[in-house]
Amino acid sequence: VAMLMWIMMGILPWAFKWISVLFSLIPHYAIAFILDAKREGELRDIYLMFSEIKWIFPQGIFILMLVF
């Protein structure tokens, strides 16, 4: 278990860096518009919350995972 945790701690920051890069390449307004067009209000709110967290601190999702 300790070995698995050590491996995950090595992989996760790298993975989240690339996820952050991918999300920064996609225009936020375009995704918000698509989600709005599908009338997925809850999903849109979650996405907007994610983008706000990402702009405040890029490792926001990683910190959230540590909290939960």
From TrEMBL:
Residues that span the membrane, as ranges: 15-35, 47-67
Highest taxon, organism lineage: Eukaryota
Record keywords, A-Z: Membrane, Transmembrane, Transmembrane helix
Transmembrane keyword on record: yes
Name of protein: Uncharacterized protein
